[in-house]
Amino acid sequence: MEVFCGSRFWDSNLSIHTDNPDLTPCFQNTILAWIPGIYLWSALPFYLLYLKHNKRGYIVLSVLSRFKTLLGALLWCVSWADLFYSFHELLQDRTPPPVYFVTPLVVGITVLLATLLIQYERLRGVQSSGVLIIFWFLSVLCAVGPFRSKIMTTTAQGHVNERFRFTTFYIYFALIIIELILSCFKEKPPFFSPVNTNPNPCPESTSGFLSRLTFWWFTSLAILGYKRPLEDKDLWSLNEEDTSKIIVQQLSREWDKEKAECKQKEDVTYMKKSNYVLNHVGDGPEEAEVLIRDKQHNRKPSFLKAMIRTFGPYFLIGSFFKLIQDLLSFVNPQLLSVLISFIKNKDAPAWWGFLIAALMFICAVLQTLILHQHFQYCFVTGMRLRTGITGVIYRKSLVITNSAKRSSTVGEIVNLMSVDAQRFMDLVTFLNMLWSAPLQIFLALYFLWQTLGPSVLAGVAVMVLLIPFNSAIAMKTRAFQVEQMRHKDSRIKLMNEILGGIKVLKLYAWEPSFSEKVLEIRKNELQVLKKSAYLNSLSNFAWVSAPFLVALTTFAVYVSVDEKNILDAEKAFVSLSLFNILKFPLSMLPQVIGNIAQASVSLKRIQQFLSHDELDPKCVETKVIAPGNAISVTNGTFSWGKELKPSLKDINLLVPSGALVAIVGHVGCGKSSLVSALLGEMEKLEGEVAVKGINLSGGQRQRVSLARAVYSSSDIYLLDDPLSAVDSHVAKHIFDKVIGPEGALKGKTRILVTHGISFLPQVDHIVVLVDGKISEMGSYQDLLKQNKAFAEFLRNYALDEDIEEDESTMLEEEEVLLAEDTLSIHTDLADNEPVTNEVRKQFLRQLSVISSEGGECPNKMSTKRRVCEKKPAEPPLPRKNLSEKLIQAETTETGTVKLSVFWQYMKAVSPVLSLVICFLYCCQNAVAIGANVWLSDWTNEPVINGTQHNTTMRIGVYAALGLLQGLIVLICSFTLAMGGINAARTLHAALLENKFHTPQSFYDTTPTGRIINRFSKDIYVIDEVIPPTILMFLGTFFTSLSTMIVIIASTPLFTVVIIPLAVLYFFVQRFYVATSRQLKRLESVSRSPIYSHFSETVSGASVIRAYRRVKSFVDISDTKIDENLKSYYPGIVSNRWLGIRVEFVGNCIVLFAALFAVIGKNSLNAGLVGLSVSYALQVTMSLNWMVRMASELETNIVAVERIKEYSETETEAPWIIEGKSPPEDWPSKGELEFVNYSVRYRKGLDLVLKGLNLHVHGGEKIGIVGRTGAGKSSMTLCLFRILEAIKGEIKIDGVKISEIGLHDLRSRLTIIPQDPVLFSGTLRMNLDPFNKYSDEEIWKALELSHLKRFVSSQPSMLDYECSEGGENLSVGQRQLICLARALLRKTRILVLDEATAAVDLETDDLIQMTIRTQFEDCTVLTIAHRLNTIMDYTRVLVLDNGTIAEFDTPASLIAAKGIFYSMAKDAGLA
User: CB under 8 Å, gap of 24 or more: what pairs does 243-248 form?
Assistant: First the structure.
């Protein structure tokens, strides 16, 4: 080197051991001058590769770009001027050393390269270049030393040496500073880049390098979110590369590639095998060989590979950042050790200390920046993964076969999307720990070994022993979680049923029994919670005590092994900070491994789903068939799955174009299956199906879908029983106006599945199906003559046609109000599986919105439909109210959470307990500080003859303090958990209590989902989210507090800085909390539509395919996912934004703690400095988590508010009024009197009953008739006080019903409600929830209600399990069970609300017969829809528009020729 430079390369007296350090000219001219060049040349190949692949269009030459290039050229000139000057010297025989030729050459070429890069980047559309910013920054940094050095030498010598080089260097220095400043500005956006049409593009893609490094571009949103709660419109649109469209496309492409590869391999093996068999007749070894090879080849396509190919490269960038961050995290403990030895060495020059402090700060800042870049890459990968998986599953769910669909329920498929995709997302965030944790552990142990030697092994042993302890706790906790989920699910399921059947519960006065059931489940749930709380406090104890126990054992072993071993500050605090680094990877490793295990299960499930068979689109051919025919099926045999037996056999069918064909047959003979087969929804086992004209329309039993089918204007209409669910005159109307020979669809080919016989004479052809075969075909007349199956079918069903009608005329308004008809239990066109009403309705509604090119106003329809689903008897709303929504919109909380909510929660926990918890936290931190102060004091113990005294006493006190801290933590977290469970219990009980006492009107205007949400989501938050959040918040808060105390105690100067830092911290915290809370709310609001839309799609896949709407539904799904990501992505970034700013505050604390230690060096001892700086190094994490937890807490405490709101809604009258109970045998006569009685449904609506006066004698049988909306059902609701009187009163046996308790009233009346509601549970529970009756009584009731035979044939008899809603019983059986309930209760007054839809007539007759015999002496009120049931009643009450129109015996009314007469005439009874 000396030859090269012509002087010494390094001189430690000049550079280190001096108060005024300087570097040798040789060092300045070589190393310092070359560093930027080395950096740029090594980064170049990677950067060029990146630029080659990312072209964004070019940027027009701007003033900025011209200046940068000009300065670059000048720099190049300046460097080469130096080079030419050296040559000039050569010519003058002053031979300069070689360095003066090499360095200017290297620098010149490097700045030339940088200048060319500026232009190349401009052509590739780079707006701000990180590579060059770092290059100019390094250049300036490396030039500062020579700059100072030159000034110092000149001042010392008094004149300038080498004037030329001196001048060029200053010009060079000025130019690179200007270059650095210019490179921080960003260029204009490039031309020819894809135009961003978004109204609100994300500023990230156009922001500069520094802005991206510090996430500065997010600040505008943070400020906006602070000023006012964010809304949807404030959110930025997604970056192109994050949208579902792009991501799902990439993932699907890779997955298809993967599938193709596997298929290819399979084919190849197959060929090989057959060749071998041909060539070798003998059993040669080759044949055996091929079989073995074959096994290996046949691999399944791996979804994992597809994911790695799609998302791997992007993820690896994040891994690279993680590697750098891991290495950097070990720099600060080393610097701490240097700092402590500097403090000990009283002669060291002061600048050493300042340099160490600066290096600590720089290192910490770098760590922060790099760590958050790593997190950003990981989270974005996770986000993309979830998007990709969700999209792929959605697309797959639209094409899987029905048998595949059957193997997994809708719920399971939705779970794939929500749970399994989420698992991948959670895993990706910490996946790097797999290699990073072992690396960190290895490095930490290496440095520890250097500090303390073999004694480290003792500490590590403790750590390793704690791992199985922690993982055992984790396993147990997981088991508890599963158990608790079970309880929670059963509780929600029960609540769902209760809310669905709340009206029935009220009518029967069954609330207490069900309330008890819920509370029983809740008790078990909280017990499990309590157990996991015990475990959690144990693991908290382990977590807090672990670093301490490790330190304790290590130090104890270290000083006991050899008394020459001295524990000084350097050893103690450096090893403490290394142990702190160790803590994280050790705890994370088991967790990551657990996550991987879970994700691999999820992967299997997803892969299995994605490998299901798909529907064969060529199943139904659309090739030309015999002219004049629209549909032909030849020898068709179809089943619902390859493995199932065929549902349709040997079908031969020819349908002429334009014909109206009816398909009839008994229930379950395959009518709907035939429609599905024509749609290509079934597996075709043999035959051939050809359909002319592609557009098929599957119409369902809903007027909406019928309308939709008409809209779609196809050539062929497949109508699956659209008339069954409507009253007969509505059916007639539909047939005449739409389907029939004169209807809207005349001239089109129509295939109509029907039960209605009255229309059959008008159709062209009739196809009769029996057990999956066509038994006969022909016109109505032909089939009647044949007198076979069809004639028998007619005889069976002819009864149906006697169904009377009580609506003679119809208003347009009521047309809507029948609201898509009383919804029948409706079977999906394809699946023959009942699908939940709610899902189906939303689904149909959506489909109709998409497919209606005109005319349908979905909003109005849906509001109305809701009305009727709840109360068939809602009166027509007056016109003026049409705009008024029935269902109130749910309010989302915005803005800050009021302190009162925290106070409410504290009250639920109990205020005393809250104070105790805070006190315990203070104690815990005091003890922790005590232990560390004791340690620092111990390290300052003087060394006498190479040993320290009192080591045993020192160890003893240290151990006692540490264990005491652990103990307090244990008590503390346990108390907190107990408090949390207390709160959870009281809040849930209050909510439940209130919901059982809430009047029916609340349930009519509030969707069940919203109430269930309170019971599931909000209660879950209170059970499981709030307590640990509070625990962590308090933990981090007190840790940060104790750090400040320690630093101030050791260096009082620190107080000066605390105020500005606190202000900065507070501002960042407020901005963050406001914004992130609102982003979380928006995110959760936009997440549920994804899943609900998905489950609707799965249920209605066949309809979507029939209407050829697959693509538009995929687009809807993508849009919904993107909407969700629009709030999720800023949420991720907000955490990075916060992290960088808060950690910067933390890094400043480190800087000032070190600085003040250096300044006060003379008055401080090494132990105190070690203590305060090692505390400062830890504070960053606490500060960051403290803000996060505060935000979490504010977001989640809202649940308390929401539950409070629903626990305080108005309640109905008390169930039992003390001292007002009616006599035991009341009502003994069954007399009934309405006195001037008026009632309305809710405030602001018109009266439904207006001044009724009527008197019914005991034992009379009264029929109540009237048109829809006349107030028939309202009368029963008034008797049971579901509706409370506006004026007037009702007396039963002379007792005013408004004066007694609701349960006293309701339990003494009997009702057979319109819709038979059953709850899941045993049959016995459904008949007698309070266990009041003996087995004999129950069997007697079952016998009278004609159910005895069915029940006794079941193996479990009375304990027969009814499924949810009684799905496993037929509608008829359910009605009979309601009859059995009435027979059991048997009071003097029976109200019978007839079912509107035509239940099979058999059941109806049974019920009427039983009532006539069993309730002979009771007062019976029947709301009749079929007049023949009440023709022999004592009197008939005709209601019209809420008033009594006629009230007399049936005979007199018919004679009077009034309303009743006209109704009877319509029904053919008069």
Answer: 243/1118, 243/1122, 243/1125, 244/387, 244/390, 244/391, 244/1117, 244/1118, 244/1121, 244/1122, 244/1125, 245/1118, 247/310, 247/384, 247/387, 247/388, 247/391, 248/387, 248/388, 248/391, 248/392, 248/395, 248/1118
3-state secondary structure 1392-1429: EECCCCCCCHHHHHHHHHHHHHHCCCCEEEEECCCHHH
Tell me how far apart the alpha carbons of residues 929 and 941 are, in angstroms, rounded to a whole number: 19
Backbone angles phi, psi at 167, to 5 degrees: -65, -50
Residue 1172 has pLDDT above 50, yes or no: yes
Q: Please give the Cα distance from 1164 to 517 (Å, whole number).
A: 68
Please report, as a single letter, which amino acid is at residue 1235: V
In this prediction, residue 193 has a pLDDT band, given cuts at 50, 70 and 90, of low
For residues 646 and 637, the answer to whether their CB atoms sit within 8 Å is yes
pLDDT band at 1016 (very low <50, low <70, confident <90, very high): confident
Structure tokens at 1199: 């649940």
Confidence of residue 481 (pLDDT cuts 50, 70, 90): confident
Which residue type, as a one-letter code, is found at position 373? Q
Tens digits of residue pLDDT in 84-104: 999 998 888 888 888 888 999
Instruction: Give the CA count within 13 Å in the CB-facing half-sphere of 20.
Output: 5
C-alpha–C-alpha distance, residues 582 and 449, integer Å: 13
The answer to whether the CB of 771 falls within 8 A of the CB of 785 is no
Q: Is it the case that residue 883 has pLDDT exceeding 50?
A: no
How far apart, in whole angstroms, are the C-alpha atoms of residue 328 and residue 324? 6
* pLDDT of res. 194: 58
Residue 308's pLDDT is: 92
Q: Helix-strand-coil percent breakdown of the chain, rounded to 5?
A: 65, 10, 25
Q: In degrees rounded to 5, what are phi and psi of residue 648?
A: -130, 135
Q: Helix, strand or coil for residue 338?
A: helix
pTM over 0.85: no
1240: nearest Cα among 1252, 1232, 1249: 1249
Token code pair at residue 930: 């005590």
Helix axes 837-851, 1110-1159, angle to 10 degrees: 110
* Exposed/middle/buried for residue 46 (C-beta within 10 Å: 0-12, 13-18, 19+): exposed
**Beta-bridge partner residues of 765:** 661
| pLDDT tens per residue, range 1356-1378 | 788 887 777 777 777 777 888 88
How far the first Cα of the chain sits from its last, in Å, is 125
Q: In this structure, what are the phi and psi dihedrals at residue 727, rounded to the nearest 5 degrees?
A: -60, 155
Query: DSSP characters for 775-829?
Result: EEEE-HHHHHHHTSHHHHHHHHHGGGGG---S--S--HHHHHHT-SSSPP--B-T
Order of strands, edge to edge, in the sheet holding 1443-1448? Answer: 1310-1312, 1389-1393, 1419-1423, 1261-1265, 1435-1440, 1443-1448
Kindly tell me if the per-residue pLDDT of 832 is higher than 70. Answer: no
Rounded CA-CA distance 728/730 in Å is: 5
pLDDT computed for residue 764 by the predictor? 87
| Cβ within 8 Å of residue 1174, ≥6 positions away | 336, 573, 576, 577
Stronger pLDDT, 225 or 1008, i.e. the higher one: 225
Strands 765-770 and 773-778: antiparallel
Phi, psi dihedrals of residue 931, rounded to the nearest 5°? -60, -45
Is a pLDDT exceeding 80 seen at residue 616?
no
Q: Locate tokens 């399979």: which residue?
A: 266
Residue 165 · residue 85 · CB < 8 Å: yes
If DSSP codes are grouped into helix, strand and coil, which group holds residue 1246?
coil
φ and ψ of 692, to 5 deg: -95, 130
Q: Which two tokens stand for residue 1233?
A: 């009197």
Sequence letter at residue 359? L
